[in-house]
Design a protein that fits this description.
Low-confidence stretches: none
Mean pLDDT: 79
Radius of gyration: 19 Å
Shape: rod-shaped
Number of strands: 0
Order of helices and strands: H
Strand content: under 5%
Structural class: mainly alpha
Helix content: over 70%
Largest sheet: none
Length: 48
């Protein structure tokens, strides 16, 4: 029983960490796509 709980907790942790990296990468991709659209339109980028 303890092995199943440990395995489940480990699997949950691995899936959670991989999801964070995926969402972070998608955010960077969207930001760069937005910058490319802004550059193509000739408008200034918003200040951070």
């Amino acid at each position: 029983m303890t092995k199943k709980i440990a395995l489940g907790a480990t699997l949950f942790a691995v899936l959670t960490l991989s999801a964070c990296n995926t969402v972070n990468g998608a955010g960077r991709d969207l930001r760069s796509a937005g910058a490319a659209v802004s550059d193509a339109s000739g408008q200034d980028k918003p200040k951070k």
